[in-house]
Structures are given as structure tokens and as C-alpha cells.
């Protein structure tokens, strides 16, 4: 915490020039078909990142309103 990086330049970003993304990790029950989960994730720029004995973890990264729609 004591190692601060010196600020060399500050630039003001306008709302029309900034790209905003959000990411969400979501747990699905293994009872859901994997192909359907994968297709849904790909529609929201995501993928399946991990699977366990009874859960699948998926990641989606897109615009905030689209991530909210996914959830």
C-alpha cells in the first residue's frame, strides 16, 4: 500500500469515447444441458471456464446492460 505510482498525466474522457465492459462469473447446476449453457454464454461474449462435480462456472463479459440481461 505504501508503493504509490506517480501520476504523469490526467486525461478527461468523454462518455462517447469510453468503452465500458463488465464481467460476471455465474454458477449453473450440472442438471442444465452444457450445450445450452455454452450457447447462451457465447451470445454474451462469454464461455464456460470451469466445471465441477455438480456445477459449471461460466464467464460473460459485455456491456453492463447486456450482462444484467444475462443475469
Features:
71 residues, alpha+beta, 3-stranded antiparallel sheet, elongated
Structure description:
There is one protein chain. It is built from 2 helices and 3 strands. It has 71 residues and is an alpha+beta fold. Strand 2 (46-51) and strand 3 (55-62) form a beta hairpin. It is elongated. It starts with 21 loop residues before the first strand and ends with a helix. 8% of the residues are buried.
Short description:
The protein is an alpha+beta fold and 71 residues long.
Tell me the radius of gyration: 18 Å
Shape label: elongated
Give the helix proportion (percent range): 10-25%
Beta-strand fraction estimate: 25-35%
Structural class: alpha+beta
Oligomer: single chain
Largest sheet: 3 strands, antiparallel
Average pLDDT, rounded to a whole number, is 84
Draw up the topology in text.
Layout: E1 22-29, H1 34-43, E2 46-51, E3 55-62, H2 64-70
Antiparallel strand pairs: 1-3, 2-3
Amino acid at each position: 500500500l505504501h508503493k504509490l505510482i506517480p501520476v504523469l498525466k490526467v486525461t478527461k474522457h468523454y462518455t462517447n469515447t469510453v468503452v465500458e465492459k463488465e464481467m460476471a462469473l455465474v454458477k449453473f447446476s450440472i442438471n442444465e444441458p452444457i450445450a445450452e449453457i455454452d450457447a447462451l454464454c457465447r451470445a454474451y461474449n462469454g464461455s464456460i471456464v470451469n466445471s465441477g462435480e455438480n456445477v459449471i462456472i461460466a464467464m460473460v463479459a459485455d456491456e453492463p446492460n447486456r450482462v444484467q440481461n444475462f443475469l
